[in-house]
């Protein structure tokens, strides 16, 4: 059944087992400049909906074979038609019928004989909602496309930057080691600082590449038994010189008992490195950083790592946002230093790839404690309390 002459007018599917009812309703709608298509049973209604993808369905309930409830359920279960509003137009009027219509996924319910102005008002209202939803969906898809394009371009750039940056770091290291000739103390300090900064950039690049793989679930974990005490001590040693140059302190607290995690050791090291690096950058002058671990509680299990500092702290309003991609701790707490906004996102995805979780406890002026849990090796001990660590910061 053809409708209004304008090909851009909304298309309405009218479903009723009585052809007279279909014709009357279609004539009414076409007089209001809507296009229409009709169907006289459930099966033909589903075929028409998939073929024409109408903007709205006016659906009778009492039909032979497949009733309107089942037609609505199938429309809502099909991804292609799930977003189409369904208005039940029926002689049924009991509350039970209306409840069943809602449970089937219906968007509205009108009882015959219907009030024409009310029908038109509800059709217009649902069509406006659908148009708004369609526009939002298009915007969301466009944003996804733009984000994929941005990520693709970013990966291309970082791949091209990584090789010359590595060569620059090698040259700076040779100069600092005296392989290119003697240096004055001041020049040696400046070159060493440049080498350290280049290392930070290289770490950002590695984070970005690894982050892309984690987001696309392309990283295959290589879990093994990891000596937690040794890992913490090595992570602290790796930052000892940098901390000393900044007037800061990094220390590892030996676990209360022999702890063994079951994790990808390389990813675990990078998570700790990101957390310690963030603490040194954003904790403020002379910050103290402590690495610790203990068995997780009965509820969380695994091994719970903690990287705590006694620095400036983080406002609770930012506890969730700092783990989002491109968010920067520097913009929130320490604007004098730059940040890629990727380190904590990498930590979150890496921990979650192990089936664990990561969170922060902090308040301004009271330091910050980052905790994360990863699986323990089989037979590892667990403490009886499942409560999280206290808010106070380890000295």
Explain what this protein looks like in three dimensions.
- α5 packs antiparallel against α6, α6 crosses α11 and α7 crosses α9.
- The chain is elongated.
- The chain is built from eleven helices and twelve strands.
- It starts with 10 loop residues before the first strand and ends in a 21-residue tail after the last strand.
- α1 links the parallel β1 and β2.
- It is an alpha/beta fold.
Secondary structure layout plus pairing:
Layout: E1 11-15, H1 19-31, E2 35-39, H2 42-52, E3 56-59, H3 68-77, E4 86-90, H4 95-103, E5 108-111, H5 116-176, H6 185-215, E6 223-227, H7 228-238, H8 240-245, E7 249-252, E8 260-264, H9 265-282, E9 288-295, E10 303-309, H10 329-332, H11 343-353, E11 357-362, E12 368-374
Parallel strand pairs: 1-2, 1-3, 3-4, 4-5, 7-9
Antiparallel strand pairs: 6-8, 9-10, 10-12, 11-12
State the helicity in percent bands.
40-55%
Number of strands: 12
**Strands across the major sheet, in which order?**
2-1-3-4-5
**Rg (C-alpha, Å):** 31 Å
Largest sheet: 5 strands, parallel
Ends: how far apart? 79 Å
Query: What portion of the residues fall into strands of 2 or more residues?
Result: 15-25%
Low-confidence stretches: 1-5, 329-340, 382-395
Mean pLDDT: 82
| Helical/strand content category | alpha/beta
Shape: elongated
């Amino acid at each position: 059944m053809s409708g209004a002459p304008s090909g851009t007018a909304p298309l309405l599917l009218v479903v009723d087992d009585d052809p007279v009812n279909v014709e009357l309703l279609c004539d009414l709608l076409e007089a209001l400049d809507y296009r229409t298509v009709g169907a006289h049973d459930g099966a033909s209604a589903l075929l028409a909906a998939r073929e024409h993808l109408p903007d709205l369905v006016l659906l009778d309930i009492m039909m032979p074979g497949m009733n309107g409830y089942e037609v609505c359920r199938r429309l809502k279960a099909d991804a292609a038609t799930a977003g189409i509003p369904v208005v039940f137009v029926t002689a049924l009027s009991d509350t039970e019928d209306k409840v069943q219509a809602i449970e089937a996924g219906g968007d509205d319910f009108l009882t015959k004989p219907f009030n024409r102005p009310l029908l038109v008002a509800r059709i217009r209202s649902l069509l406006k909602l659908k148009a708004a939803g369609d526009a939002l969906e298009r915007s969301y898809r466009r944003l996804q496309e733009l984000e994929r394009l941005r990520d693709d371009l970013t990966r291309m750039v970082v791949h091209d930057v990584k090789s010359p940056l590595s060569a620059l770091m090698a040259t700076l290291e040779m100069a600092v080691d005296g392989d290119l000739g003697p240096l004055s103390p001041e020049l040696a300090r400046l070159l060493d600082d440049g080498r350290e900064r280049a290392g930070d950039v290289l770490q950002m690049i590695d984070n970005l590449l690894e982050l892309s793989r984690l987001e696309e679930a392309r990283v295959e974990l290589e879990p093994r038994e990891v000596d937690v005490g040794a890992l913490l001590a090595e992570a602290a040693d790796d930052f000892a010189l940098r901390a000393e140059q900044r007037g800061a302190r990094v220390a590892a607290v030996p676990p209360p008992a022999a702890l063994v995690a079951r994790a990808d050791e390389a990813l675990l090291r990078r998570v700790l490195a990101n957390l310690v690096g963030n603490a040194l950058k954003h904790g403020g002058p002379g910050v103290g950083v402590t690495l610790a671990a203990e068995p997780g509680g009965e509820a969380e299990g695994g091994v719970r790592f903690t990287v705590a500092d006694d620095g400036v702290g983080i406002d609770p309003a930012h506890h969730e946002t700092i783990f989002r991609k491109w968010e920067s701790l520097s913009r929130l707490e320490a604007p004098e230093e730059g940040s890629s906004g990727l380190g904590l996102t990498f930590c979150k995805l890496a921990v979650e790839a192990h089936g664990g979780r990561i969170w922060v406890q902090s308040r301004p002026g009271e330091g910050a404690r980052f905790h994360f849990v990863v699986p323990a090796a089989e037979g590892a001990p667990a403490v009886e309390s499942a409560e999280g660590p206290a808010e106070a910061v380890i000295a």
